Give the backbone structure.
Amino acid sequence: MTSKRQGSGKGFKPSGQVKGAKPDGGTKADDILRALSLAPEIDRRRYLRKQNMPLTLYKFKSVNTEKPYILEDIMVSSRLYLSSPQSFNDLFDMKPHATVEGDLSTLLEKIVSQPAPSQRAKQDAMKRARAIWREQGPDGIAKEFRVQENIENLFANTGVFCFSAISAEASRITGPRNNLMWSHYGDSHRGVCLQFQVSKDSQILQRLVRVKYSDEYPTINWLSPTVEDECLLAATNKQASWSYEHEWRHIELYAARKYTQFNPRLLTGIIFGAKITAESVEEIDRILRLRAESGLPPLKTYYAQTDQASYNIRILRQST
């Protein structure tokens, strides 16, 4: 039985991309990324538009003077902290339902592919699996091999960094103009929004995937030969009520609670929230000085402002 694929998993998949490695060990996507890195920036922007990839990514953050390293990590050290889904504010995010769908031969192939302390241990596992399958069927296998627990552990150890993007369908109320994002992730407009320009370094596309919003709960078939791919698809599925986030994610398997470096050129701007305090502005100025002392490219600075005649948020360039 073929399991239904959930989520979108739509990230850097160029038109005509062939799945799998080439004879030289690379992929067509690797070749395109290399070509993009050598192309003029205007060509990279054209390519992103053609592929429906975001030109700019945004990260809303609070300004915590008691934990200055949080913003320093991004703005000075040029690294992103990959969170475990266990820390997410959405109770259902990246917690798919695990099933056992297939026949006995598929199950035995699965056991053969799993690591074991010895060949004898693997043979014993296959013998036990045959007996459980005959007596209890797939439900017994799911319990014996702790299928749900194993899937949950895989997700718990997956590292994720979440971005927001501008939606072409609602560009005036998404990205840095997203009122809810400021309220929920930007410390109720007292924080900042960091701006990453994707065209500055296309390598960020390598692990970037778009989140799909659906009320259909994601399911993972433990017996699927592409179970890790299905997990990645499930990792990009969120309940429809979260669609206002317009989220893209950097995802790395087995990298939870670790850091990943990015090219300092990616971070191009910072937007101050409409209610940011003088203390927070002073803290950001301190971090910007550290960035300058490190020889990193300067950031464009903006501030958010509410429109007095509508529900819109305006983004204004800070005068120098």
About this structure: The mean pLDDT is 89. DSSP finds nine helices and 15 strands in the chain. The chain has two domains: 54-87+159-317, 97-154.
